[in-house]
Amino acid sequence: QEVVSEQSEEESNGVNLMEFSDEILLHILSYVPCTDLVLNVRRTCRKLATLCLDKSLTHTVLLQKDYKVNKDKVKQLMRDIGKEIYQLNMAGCYWLPSSTIDHVTRCKNLVKLNLSGCHVTSLRLSKMLSTLQHLRSLAIDVNPGFDASQLSSECKATLSRVSELKQTLYTPSYGVVPCCTSLEKLLLYFEILDRSREGFMLSGQLMVGESNVPHYQNLRIFYARLAPGYVNQEVVRLYLAVLSDRTPENLHAFLISAPGSFAETGATKNLLDSMARNVRLDALQLPKAWINGSGLLQHLKFNNPFYFSFSRCTLSGGHLIQRVINGGKDLKSLTSLNLSGCVHCLAPESLFRKAEDDIDSSILESLVVSCCNLRHLNLSAAHHHSSESIGNHLCQLLSRLKHLLSLALPVCSITDVAANVEKPPTTPNLVPQTFGRKVRIGIQTYPRNLGDQANQKIESSVFWALMGSLRFLETLEIIGSSFSSAMPRNEPAIRNSLPPCVRAQSVGDSEVAAISQLTYLQSLTLAQLPNILTGSGLINIGLQCQHLRTLSLANLGMMGKVVYMSALMDMLKHCKCLRDLRLEQPYFCAGAQFFQALSHCSSLQRLCIVSRSGTLQSDAVMSFMANCLEVIMCHMFMGESLTVCKNLQQSIVRSFQAERPALNVVIFPLLHEDLTEVIRDVPMRHLDEITLFKSRVAEEPPNLWW
Prior knowledge:
26 helices, globular, single chain, 20-stranded parallel β-sheet, two-stranded parallel sheet, 4 domains
């Protein structure tokens, strides 16, 4: 009786949720997925029934990562609030059958619609768009079999009013671009493979009868991102051909992201010359071959630039300061800068310079002073070695950028110069990087308590100070300058990796511990940190960075042994918000202890493990999938046999597919010759966001799409 009376007293003194004001309740409800609001929460009481249908909650419906939504839920949702929806995002809902799109026709007032990654035929697209007369923004995929001649006149009328189009191409085609006569923003993603499944070489020529006259006269933003392959290059040239004839007067953002070599032609040169004469840009990204060795940047005019990407260009720091920043011009408008792979961007000239030479701190200082409002900065994939000058270390200069939200750095750039100078060439703490006979070494004991770590050395390091000054950083990437993933896009798995930079040899546990100062950190990538001995810094991150959602670790410490496994398992027990985990490490053992620790990550949705000669325990994987109900993606590329991989994959699908409609499972031998064929079937959302390793900081302009 005493216990009951105490409970009733607590309840009487507690706060009733329904006593909050409508404004507060609406704010709380805005964090609940729309499907739950309309199909579940709305039915709890009269007050919530009214609030859940408030315009602020039904105006924009986001289904793009609602992995529990199915066809029936979408049907009921559209039936209940279809007329109230003005913006609908179904991007990446690959698990929904194409017939689900038919229910979108109930949303008569739609203004923005994102169907990227959804299965949509040209006939279904025609039927749907014919009813959406208010549509102004559209994102779709163009798959093999798409036929623009099947689009009705009503559909084309709707497309003629669309001002924003995002189109992902899996086949050579103009898609719906020729029908969009009022385009102001055009985003193109080229994902066309060079070979068919049968092994035939594909051509970049468009289908016979397709219009070749896209309407670019009102274009303000042109963005094209190419996957590797020559067919993608051939097709994008056809899109650019019209631009080269007449450059839109209002063009203010021109961005082309192309891997590898994408040669400049006469048509593209005419286009760039026309742009230099007629437009003032706010955002620019070009293939490296179009910039290297040319005076293009000297002639282009900029208005209030907010995004620059010179990724993989041989642009020197001198040219960067003179031609882009105009000798220190105030560029407070610039919020995002990508200099990934731009090996000479912090040196005055590149003609006689080696990539490993020290940087010129005055160039970086000019950059920091001129672009003081930078929020996203990528300096990865290059050797940025600081000199011994006091106060001019790269980390010390970057600490002035107080607005940074995302940052990517090479491992060799964060090491203390003094520490490298004082340390003898060979130290007992360096870990051998070869796969040969192991050398027994003395393991330095690192305390797991953050305070003890600080007392040893890290509080005095320049990297510790940098992390302390960037308190609001949300995304951090520390990647070895010579690191390459074992699983590239359209090629067989890489069997050998390059050794880390000599300057990076001292970067290890203490530097990782320094990252734990980033209280608001949401995404962390660490790759090729050679001096990881115990991984103790990971535990500090797990304890302090409670907002961490994405974690990617690759090639840490000794290559022949996973030396940080114990620390990783301790870390995972504290990562309650972790949603995406990617691990790439040779000889990784995905056993019962690992999956038991991973089961503490109650929010985990996606797991990817890439391990040459790695092993797994099938029973442990099945138990993990049963315990972690939110997991909808399990990708493992290990050293197990094809039979073991196939049996486990089939068991997972058979056991959990029914209750997890979005479940995507790929378990396959990493070095198998058919790996590329398996990869092509992975949904683009997972492939692009987690399965393939890449630097994502400043990869594209902020807020480019939804």
